[in-house]
Design a protein that fits this description.
- By secondary structure, the protein is mainly alpha-helical.
- Helices cover 51% and strands 0% of the residues.
- The protein has four helices and no strands.
- It has helices spanning 5-13, 18-27, 40-48, 56-63.
């Protein structure tokens, strides 16, 4: 999903990584996310996903890609 143009555009808009956009998409909907990383820089980056808020329209536009399962 990180390579989708919609994700890329939002990452650019919010000066975030695609992973941060996807984490924010989930957390902003009240979905608990437990990202797994032993890398301290990745852990910090994951927390930075809480530093911006997407609009309701942006959240709605990303829902069409949600397959309701994890990899």
């Amino acid at each position: 999903m990180m390579k989708l143009p919609e994700i890329q555009l939002l990452a650019e808009k919010y000066q975030a990584t695609p992973a941060q956009v996807l984490l924010r998409f989930l957390t902003q909907q009240g979905i608990v996310v437990i990202p797994k990383s032993m890398n301290i820089d990745h852990q910090k980056s994951n927390l930075d996903s809480l530093g911006f808020t997407m609009t309701d329209e942006e959240i709605a536009s990303l829902r069409k890609f949600d397959k309701h399962h994890s990899n």
